[in-house]
UniProtKB/TrEMBL annotation:
Residues 581-640, 648-707 form the PASTA domain. The lineage of its organism: Bacteria, Bacillati, Bacillota, Clostridia, Eubacteriales. This is Stage V sporulation protein D (Sporulation-specific penicillin-binding protein). Keywords: Membrane, Transmembrane, Transmembrane helix. InterPro entries: Beta-lactam/transpept, Beta-lactam/transpept-like, PASTA_dom, PBP_dimer, PBP_dimer_sf, PCN-bd_Tpept, SpoVD_pbp. Belongs to the transpeptidase family.
Length: 714
């Protein structure tokens, strides 16, 4: 009996100890959960029952200088899914995929993800949103976001820029001032039970977003419209590769308008080619300015007292520097003339002499002082700094060509900024696009005031240079820029396009005009740059200057600038202007069919005459490579009398012409003193005599040409 009691007590004790150990373990575990990991599990619990829906901040508006809204944000629903609330993914995907314009499989893959929140489609249109809302699908929700809306399509899109799907600035002012415009996002917090049902009267927290600030630009909407109108006219008349117009207030540096062609609609920027929207030609395009750069040469020389308006020059039609003759655009030259007439006539030899007299050190001093070779700091992404020969590497020939606007590349904004310094009394002003940043109540957060970079030339020099440029419009090459009722000053420019591998591209030009008005109290400065105009006309005085006249007239009248009565007009019809010609290399057209030779010469800006009868060119005067002025007549020999470089008894080997074009074959045979007789078009497939055959110079080689195909490709 006693033994039995002992056993029972031991069992009870063991059971008690076991229960104590178990309870102790539970207590330790509870302490671990409640005390050590309490905060972590509490947060997990909140996350498990709370749904956090982001609320995008409304982006601030962009306005012009007069308060006209150019860019705003409009509400748009974005569709999201809470996957663990969707009970029948196949049915839901089939219902909403067609409405969203998405693939059913793609929708299903999104709504079956193991996550608490997934976007289905951002910023859908109103009709789509209403149709999906009408389905009342559990687990499908809507967040009100905003999308950017550009109120006037194609109005200054390269300046305004555009935004991405998340309303982030991607280009232009939208990118440059993204922090100021984007605001601070908010969120909606909703509590659910364990089954995922929204709890009535439970915790619903709304953290409102903070709307972005507004951006007030220096642009004037009306002046921008004038610029866009003139650009459309340029495109219709000349079909250029590119065109730029910039209007600035020369006294403040404020950009009143800036337009480019080609252009795009920022509301649909993805539909435009990338090369159209990813760069702003007004701040990026590097080009040789041609004679518009003579404004800088003249101002620098006058400031350094290297020249005075009455100083005399003699122009024989060229100026020789080292072994090169740089011709005047006027055949035979301008003869004896004053410096005032040198500027008025845009005389190359006169400006070259002035540039060389100024000297390399001083010339470079003013080039840099006027802002060339460095960005202007206008505040737009992607600004180029231009291209300059290093001063230590510059030769007298470089100084000579730079003085007439060659051997240096500038951007449109650089050149107009420099011209403004001449117009405003010698002050180089930093170009400005933004006036201020405001909050939604109109309070000024930050204001941008006009900023003078440096005094480049004296007020007296600037005034004298302006008077000389006024003569250009009244008496010289800029007559087409004459503005009725206002004194205007400016300079035309015509330059060849620099080829990618050096030298100049045949038949490709940049026409430009830089000017300001009224001369006595300038309110506007304008640059018109037209790259590679088509249709035959490409001179700055004929293509660009006529744009300035109506544009400046409309702007000045809009600004309320009083007209001056009884102003003298140019003595000749302002639409009849002597064209400023430039130096070009004569292309080789020997051994080409006459129609192709004529096309090549037209593209190079040269005229032509024919001698003899026939359809092939056997000789040309001047020979290929000769430097002549644009518009020079090339004589084409069709008789064969001058085409063969025949030396009695000398024979040459016929080359293999297979796979060559007519032009390539003709050039090769012409260099050997042989004549091409082609048939057909395309690439050479057969020839007679065969390659390697010996012929006397002056002999004819017959070649058959056919369009490229799998059978005759080289």
């Amino acid at each position: 009996m006693k033994t039995t009691n002992i056993v029972i007590r031991r069992r009870i004790t063991g059971l008690f100890l076991l229960a104590t150990a178990f309870l102790s373990l539970i207590i330790v575990r509870l302490a671990w959960v409640q005390i050590v990991k309490g905060d972590e599990y509490r947060q997990k619990g909140i996350i498990n029952r709370m749904r956090d829906v982001p609320v995008e901040a409304k982006r601030g508006s962009i306005l012009d200088r007069n308060g006209n809204e150019l860019v705003t944000s409009v509400s748009a629903d974005s569709v999201y899914a809470i996957p663990n609330h969707i009970k029948n993914p196949d049915e839901v995907a089939a219902q909403i995929a067609p409405l969203l314009g998405m693939d059913v499989t793609r929708v299903k893959s999104i709504i079956t993800k193991k996550s608490r929140f997934e976007w289905l489609k951002r910023k859908v249109d109103f009709e789509t949103s209403q149709k999906i809302k009408a389905l009342k699908i559990e687990g499908i929700g809507f967040a009100e976001e905003s999308r950017r809306y550009y109120k006037q399509e194609t109005l200054a899109p390269h300046i305004l820029g555009f935004t991405g799907t998340d309303n982030q600035g991607l280009m232009g002012m939208e990118a440059a001032f993204d922090e100021e415009l984007k605001g601070i996002p908010g969120r909606i917090v909703i509590e659910h039970d364990a089954a995922g049902r929204e709890i009535p009267q439970a915790l619903h927290q709304y953290i409102p977003p903070t709307q972005g600030n507004n951006l007030v630009l220096t642009l004037d909407q009306t002046i921008q419209h004038f610029v866009e109108r003139e650009l459309d006219k340029i495109v219709a008349a000349h079909h250029p590769k590119m065109a730029v117009i910039i209007v600035m207030d020369p006294k403040t540096g404020e950009v009143l308008a800036m337009g480019n062609r080609p252009t795009f609609n920022p509301n649909k920027w993805r539909e435009a080619p990338q090369q159209v929207w990813d760069r702003n030609p007004a701040i990026w395009y590097n080009y040789e300015p041609g004679s518009t750069f003579k404004i800088i040469t003249a101002a620098a020389a006058l400031e350094e007292n290297v020249v005075k308006p009455g100083d005399r020059f003699y122009d024989p039609g060229y100026y020789q520097v080292a072994d090169r003759k740089i011709r005047c655009w006027k055949a035979g030259g301008h003869g004896s003339q004053s410096f005032e007439e040198v500027v008025q006539n845009s005389c190359n030899p006169g400006f070259i002499q002035i540039g060389l007299n100024l000297g390399k050190e001083k010339f470079y001093k003013y080039i840099r002082a006027f802002g060339f070779g460095q960005p202007t700091g206008i505040g737009l992404p992607g600004e180029a700094k231009g291209i300059m020969i290093r001063e230590k590497d510059a030769t007298n020939l470089n100084i000579a060509t730079m003085s007439i606007g060659q051997s240096i590349a500038v951007t449109p904004i650089q050149l107009l900024t420099a011209v403004c310094a001449v117009a405003n009394g010698g002050k180089l002003m930093k170009p400005q696009l933004v006036k201020r940043v405001e909050d939604q109540k109109g309070n000024v957060i930050k204001e941008y005031k006009p900023e003078m970079v440096r005094q480049v030339i004296s007020e007296e020099t600037a005034k004298l240079t302006s008077q000389l440029l006024e003569n250009v419009v009244f008496k010289g090459t800029g007559k087409n820029a004459f503005v009725e009722g206002y004194r205007a000053a400016g300079k035309t420019g015509t330059a060849q396009v620099v080829a990618e591998r050096g030298g100049y591209a045949s038949g490709r030009y940049v026409a430009s005009f830089a000017g300001f008005a009224p001369v006595n109290d300038p309110k506007i400065a304008v640059l018109i740059m037209i790259a590679e105009p088509q249709g035959g006309a490409y001179y700055g005085g004929v293509v660009a200057a006529p744009v300035f006249s109506p544009l400046a007239l409309d702007i000045l009248r809009y600004l309320g600038v009083p007209e001056q009565k009884n102003l003298p007009k140019p003595k000749t019809n302002p639409w009849e202007v002597e064209e400023e010609r430039i130096e070009v290399a004569v292309p080789n057209v020997v051994n080409l069919p006459l129609d192709e030779a004529q096309k090549v010469l037209r593209e190079a800006g040269l005229a032509f005459e024919t001698r003899g009868q026939g359809r092939m060119v056997y000789g040309q005067i001047p020979e290929s490579g000769a430097l002549v002025l644009s518009g020079t007549t090339v004589i084409l020999d069709l008789s064969g009398s001058g085409g063969a470089k025949n030396k009695q008894g000398e024979q040459v080997s016929v080359p293999d012409l297979k796979g060559m074009t007519i032009r390539e074959a003709g050039n090769l045979l012409e260099s050997l003193g042989l004549t091409l007789e082609p048939t057909g078009s395309g690439l050479a497939v057969t020839q007679s005599p065969a390659a390697g055959h010996k012929l006397p110079r002056g002999s004819t080689v017959k070649v058959e040409f056919k369009p490229p195909s799998s059978e005759n490709k080289p």
